[in-house]
Amino acid sequence: MVKKVLTVGEILVEIVATTRGDGFLEPQPLVGPFPSGAPAIFIDQVGKLGTPAAIVSRVGADDFGALNIERLTADGVDVSGVEVATGETTGSAFVRYRNDGSRKFVFNIAHSACGTVPITPAADALFDSCDHLHIMGTALSSPGLKDTALAALARIKARGGTLSFDPNLRPEILGTPGLRAALDEVLAQTDLFLPSGEELFLFTDASEPDAAADELLGRGIGEIVIKNGSRGARYVSAGRKLDVAALSVEELDPTGAGDSFGGTFVSFWLSGADPEAALHYANAAGARAVTVLGPMEGTSTRAELDALCRRTEG
Ligand code: ATP
Ligand code: MG
């Protein structure tokens, strides 16, 4: 049976500073708007691979919302669960890279259209028809979005579905009230955990990656994939450890790499592929994402991933 993937979370436009520096305290050149939002990028990648995909979210009746709906639809994502809210504004993120490669964000999520996502009849129907849920930590950072994500989780799990979870935490949202409890609640039900780097230690007492992974496996999380940026990725389950080196590409814009990686891993994983194949393709998707400016601009089809692997592997 072909499984359908659902995500619940923010849809944003992203505006990217074209120069490096610390944030937005002075006027500066910008480029955008680009379709964005970690859950949206994730599900766009799933759709591009031909895996049935849907998102529950909310946008304003404005160009920023239309831009996103058009892109997701073109890439095969079911947007029936995206409510268009008249009189509200689509969410946004402004991002500027610092010289050390770190990023400064200005987010407008909690008070935008996607900050509150009531369960519409269309969303309710998706909770009944989807087999897998992917949750991003950012979607737990606003109360009006978190409750819907947790409702989707309860419904899909009750029907025997599976959950993947990417903490995807930004320093800007870590202090949100109630976030920690929601993260713990989601982690406890996670089948496939997709942290990047230090996020592995957010939920463990361990201070070393393998010990942290073992601690999580011991708590019932079936499989863990640790994303390590330009250092590649590592898959860990009870009986198996796999490492993959990053493909050698020129990094232009790393935003969206983790989401493209995740969407690809989940697509292959749900289709029953061996974790090694899933890791290989996810690694290629992450690599391809960093070569393209704009968060969702670097999502990939299967043919694009195969072409990148041929080029970089020989
Ligand atoms: P984000 O949340 O910004 O989308 P992330 O922190 O979740 O990113 P990363 O670890 O940065 O995720 O990247 C995910 C994967 O993409 C990596 O594990 C790797 O496979 C690939 N990748 C990332 N950066 C590079 C790079 N510079 N070169 C090649 N592959 C990369
Ligand atoms: Mg991430």
Tell me about this structure.
With 314 residues, this protein is of the alpha/beta class. It has a domain at 37-55 and 119-313: Ribokinase (UDP-N-acetylmuramoyl-L-alanine:D-glutamate ligase), CATH 3.40.1190. The chain is 35% helix and 22% strand. It is built from nine helices and 13 strands. It has helices at 38-48, 63-74, 121-129, 143-158, 179-187, 209-218, 257-270, 275-290, 302-313, and strands at 5-8, 12-17, 30-36, 53-60, 82-85, 91-97, 103-108, 132-136, 162-166, 192-193, 223-227, 233-237, 240-244. The strands form two sheets. A nine-stranded mixed beta sheet has the order 5-4-1-8-9-10-11-12-13, with helices on both faces. The chain has a four-stranded mixed beta sheet with strand order 3-2-6-7. The longest helix is centred in the middle third of the chain and has 16 residues, at 143-158. The chain is globular and about 50 Å long. The relative contact order is 0.14. It binds adenosine-5'-triphosphate and magnesium ion (MG). Residues 166, 168, 196, 258 line the site of magnesium ion (MG).
In short:
By secondary structure, this protein is of the alpha/beta class.
Task: Name its key features.
314 residues, alpha/beta, UDP-N-acetylmuramoyl-L-alanine:D-glutamate ligase, 4-stranded mixed beta sheet, 9 helices, 22% strand, globular
Structural class: alpha/beta
Ligand set: adenosine-5'-triphosphate, magnesium ion
Q: Could you name the ranges where pLDDT drops below 50 across 5 or more consecutive residues?
A: none
Name the helicity range: 25-40%
Q: What is the class of the domain at 37-55 and 119-313 in the CATH system? A: Alpha Beta
Separation of the first and last Cα atoms = 35 Å
Let me know the CATH homologous superfamily of the domain at 37-55 and 119-313: Ribokinase
Secondary structure tally, helices = 9
* Radius of gyration of CA atoms, rounded to a whole number: 18 Å
How are the strands of the largest sheet arranged?
5-4-1-8-9-10-11-12-13
